[in-house]
Amino acid sequence: MSFKSRTGKIFSALTLTLSLLGAPIAQADTTLRIGNQGEPASLDPHFLSGDWENRIAGDLFMGLTTEDPEGNAIPGAAESWTVSDDGLVYTFKIRDHKWSDGQPVTAQDFEYAMRRILLPETAAEYASLLYIIKNGEELNTGKAKPEDLGVHALDDKTLEITLKGPAPFLISMLTHYTAFPVPKHIVEKYGKDWTKKEHIATNGPYKLVEWLPNTHVKVTKNELFWDAANVKIDNVIFYPQEDAAALIKRMRAGEIDCIYKFPSGQIDWLRQNMPEETKIAPYLGTYYYPINTKRAPFTDKRIRQALSMAIDREIIMDKVLKTGELPAYSMVPPGTSNYKEPSYVTWKSMPMADRITKAKELMKEAGYGDDKHLKVQLRYNTDDNHKRIAIAVAQMWKKIGVETELFNSEVKVHYAELKQGNFEVARAGWVADYNDPQNFLFLLESTSKSLNYGNYDNPEYDKLMEDAYLESDLKKRAQIMGKAEAIAMEDAPIIPIYYYVSKNLVSTKIKGWKDAINDTHRTRWLSIEN
Amino acid sequence: MYSQKSKLAAMMPDAENTIEGRSLWQDARRRLFQNKAAVVSMAILAIIALMAIFAPFLSPHPLDEIYWDRIQAAPDYANAHWFGTDSSGRDLFIRVLYGARVSLMVGILATGVSLIIGVTYGAISGYFGGKVDNFMMRFVDIMYSLPFMFFVILLMVVFGRNIFLIFVALGAVEWLTMARIVRGQTLSIKRKEYVEAAHAGGVSNLKIIFRHIIPNVLGPVIVYVTLTVPQVILTESFLSFLGLGVQEPLTSWGVLISEGAKLMEMAPWMLIYPAIFLATTLFCFNFIGDGLRDALDPKDR
Amino acid sequence: MLNYFIRRVLASIPTLLIVITIAFFMMRIAPGGPWDKERSLPPEIEANIMKAYDMDKPLVEQYFIYLGKILVGDFGPSYKFRDFSVTDLLMGGFPASLQIGGMAIFLAVIFGTLFGAMAALRKNSAADYSVMTMAMTGIAIPNFVMAPVLTLIFGVYLSWLPVAGWGDGSFQYKILPVLALALPQIAYIARLTRGSMIEVLHSNYIRTARAKGLRERLVLLRHALKGAMLPVVSYLGPATAAVITGSVVIETIFDIPGIGRYFIQGALNRDYPLVMGTVIFYGVLIIVLNLIVDMLYGLLDPKVRLHD
Questions:
Q1: Band of the pLDDT at C209, cuts 50, 70, 90?
Q2: Taking CB atoms and an 8 Å limit, are A7 and C158 in contact across chains?
Q3: Of A328, A405, B101, B283, which sits with the fewest C-beta atoms within 10 Å of its C-beta?
């Protein structure tokens, strides 16, 4: 039965009778039911943009590399690879395996997929991730032909990828869905309908059973997957429900087995009532407030520094969020690969009282004080946590004589205004696509038009980042980027608030779950024990 | 008789008519104040309104003070958090009172706007009928179909963020059903003998509408008004979600209730207290509405 | 009557055209676009997407392209759900919303008029007060409170019913959402029925009917209720349109695959074709239902003439 009846007498008898017709027969199969919190935009890996889509796509498809239970890159569709000495040419040996329709997965499928996602006509949102490939950006902007792209199938099982510059993060980046293969023979035959359940073929551990919009996406074990012998869960159902509070109730009623991203407002209750299910782990992301460096008086570095200094991050972590986030004093979260310790703000270990004094001094130097209050408009997109943090920050800024006007808007308006530079201080967040400091620091390059919200523009910073792109020595590269980050932290174009954590609820029945820095938990590593 | 007042009014010259009207109003007021439920309701509403106005004097806590050691704390008399604190650690009692300011204003003003537009529009449309009615009702259909969200977003773009805009936006949408109801009643009433008599007696259309039609549709109008009040108060919280309603640290009952609803098991007080205030207010409006209806009913005398 | 009907159907064409035109420009002028989000797109990528959706053309030209497409029944692809067309989404989701909403409206009309009439007949009695207190409570509790409370009690604490989900579409999944949707509507209709019933009970023709010696019950049924239904029917036109197109709150809390969410989420996502699809869908429903309501007036009160 799909629901249990403990106490209900008349009611359950009634519903039981009524549901007999449609009730599924109990199966020996194991099914993982995921509260996925979002309807996928597509099942085509080239049209995805969210982590809820990644969860589905990553069960269906497998890139050259894939994630282990802890989210580290390991060989996937490629069983091995070699790298040229200059770090520019990667040669992958494709594993001998098949699409779920029995056709072999070839190097041509990868070549086809990477050209396809970069074609301007495809209009793929996430294509820019592959700009690191030679001629990737040129192809995407119509300046190069597909054949020019630095991805070539040398034979059916050998794929060569040539990069624009050394990219030590390539192997980790190739786990991303933008680098997933698509079955060339099916996409060419069915066009945009290729993801329909009657056409689609996958090379991952699961294959599609059905997708009913706003009901569920159901996948079942792909017996042709190369490691099918070790896949323990037979079916996965992804529920798109977005209401996290309702999802928690469903989990309590035994209707679903795991929820990604629970709301932190519930944390006290969860810690008390579902402590074993509550999984919190560091996550590669930074929550920050960009400051509009082009709008007076925020053009003044001292004001920006003062605003950042005056925020007591520890209190926000302990009292507002309470979900184990770490207070942030840098752009790059600690623990990022290919990096050293992040370059923190210089006043990181200064006691709070001293920071307030210092911030007040800075404000005074900038011409503000008790007689002349600085007025700041703080924008955030509507969300309980953003609101509570903004309220707390407003209270903290009051201590250095800053009057804060809070301004919320729905997410589309919020980011539209940010992009146009129509703000003073605003809320933003960044979660890494791949585990590398460059994926955070590029946000502050003056050339990063759409994501450098505050229009931070420091030639010295840009120059260092440019150098870092050309540097193939990992240690030196880390040093250069560290220097760049230190400059940015001193200039304070952003106020780092905290480093994200992943917050998941996982039933105790599920085994094999491990904390992962990128919050990617592929079903093939999990099992269910009753 | 069905409507002595209307008939009389139709025959009377203007001067006498106003005298007659005044005494009618006095009569209505007298009867309204005889209705105990209505009087008690008015008293309670007045108390809530006074509490909202004098909120700062009723609690030792300011609206936006954060108590870091009392976040989402249950009601606690020692610290004078009679309603507990919210999830930012602010006193809920004072927030509910400040919320009353916004919600009562929205409730009364937006409903008032929708009442005036809806009743006038519906009565005119129904009374003139034919082409006029057809045209006016198609306009209502159009207004129903337009996406409300973009409507308010554009209002904000044009006029800037302004709390009075909320009332206009809400009133401008809520009048539609009111107009449909009034127009439906008017279609039926205008065929009644007293209206036709007035018409034959040469009374101007406008006068007929305001003297004969509208007083006789007040029953359903008053009921629908009391239904509109909660609707606009709760819709305001959606506007706040869009960023077009009240901004922190100000708040409203709608916002408080939707915050509380998310934490109903963890912090029930965050839901219960604002909900009690909202429910009480609605009950009061309801009883006052019923009292008004009875008092104004031309047939009950 | 038939003449009037035909005239109204013809009038719906310009009405819809005006709705489409205003909605199209309103939506496009409003700040925020479909690809403004947490991760802003690089300008070159956004340019590719704009081009793929004809959004790089002048707005007026886009409007005429859109009009041309809907004339041949093509409501476009959803921007947000790229694997589906707007028609797929609306037609796929409408049955679920219609089922839940239809049942809710049905219950609301039956119980609403019943309770309302009962309360009116026994005005100011204990029965009246208790019915009206319940009704007011139903109105005062918004559905975003009612729905979680219902799921908590019947789904989590008692485990009688599923908390949410559609499952195989069987009855057990529909009970709570229908209830949550119907309760406030029952309350609304009960209030309206009571109000107008009291009015009608005082009026001339009921007194005449009583005087004629017909049995009171018959009088009430035939005349009073019929007369009292007028405002209820007026209310039901737009209310039915709203309820059968689903409620975003109910659908997200109960995870129902209906179209209610598209009305709000389509707008929040700035999924332009989907917004237009919902606007047209709703517009047609409003026009049809208000036409039915106008026809019903004639049945309820023979004196009502719409065409003169």
A1: low
A2: yes
A3: A405
Phi then psi dihedrals of residue A260, to 5 deg = -90, 135
Asked if this assembly's ipTM is beyond 0.85, the reply is yes
SS3 A228: helix
pLDDT for residue A203: 94
Q: pLDDT band for C213, please (50, 70, 90 cuts).
A: low
Which residue among C31, C287, C304 sits closest to B157, beta carbon to beta carbon? Answer: C31
* Residues A406, B249: C-beta atoms closer than 8 Å: yes
**A282 beta partners:** A501
**CB contacts, 8 Å: C46 with chain A:** 450
DSSP chain B: ---HHHHHHHHS-HHHHHHHHHHHHHHHHHHHHH-HHHHHHHHHHHHHHHHHHTHHHH-SS-TT---TT-TTPPPBTTTTBTT-B-TTS-BHHHHHHHHHHHHHHHHHHHHHHHHHHHHHHHHHHHHH-HHHHHHHHHHHHHHHHS-HHHHHHHHHHHH-S-HHHHHHHHHHHHHHHHHHHHHHHHHHHTTSHHHHHHHHTT--HHHHIIIIIHHHHHHHHHHHHHHHHHHHHHHHHHHHHHTSS--TT---HHHHHHHHHHTTTT-HHHHHHHHHHHHHHHHHHHHHHHHHHHHH-TT--
> Chain B residue closest to A319 (CA)?
B68
- Strands A31-35, A235-239: parallel, antiparallel or unpaired by DSSP? parallel
Q: What integer is the mean pLDDT of A271-282?
A: 91
**Lowest mean pLDDT segment, chosen from A275-284, B9-18, B265-274, C91-100:** B9-18
In whole angstroms, give the CA distance from residue A263 to residue B260: 14
* CB nearest B181 (choices: C231, C275, C290): C231
Q: Considering the entire predicted model, what is its pTM?
A: 0.86
Chain A: residues touching B (Cβ < 8 Å):
245, 263, 265-266, 268-269, 315, 319-320, 382, 384, 387-388, 390-392, 394-395, 405-410, 413
Instruction: Find the mean pLDDT for residues A172-191.
Output: 93
- Report phi then psi at A162, rounded to 5: -110, 135
C146, closest residue in chain B (CA to CA): B261
The answer to whether A430 and A286 have CB atoms below 8 angstroms apart is yes
Mean pLDDT over each residue of chain A, to the nearest integer: 89
C65 residue type, one letter:
I
With beta carbons under 8 A apart, name residues in chain A contacting B247: 405-408
Whose structure tokens read 């040669």? A91
Distances, alpha carbon C156 to alpha carbons A449, A504, B173, C150, C165, in Å: 49, 20, 38, 9, 14
Q: A38, A48, A375, A327: which is closest to A182 by C-alpha?
A: A48
Lowest mean pLDDT, pick from A107-111, A244-248, A388-392, C299-303? C299-303
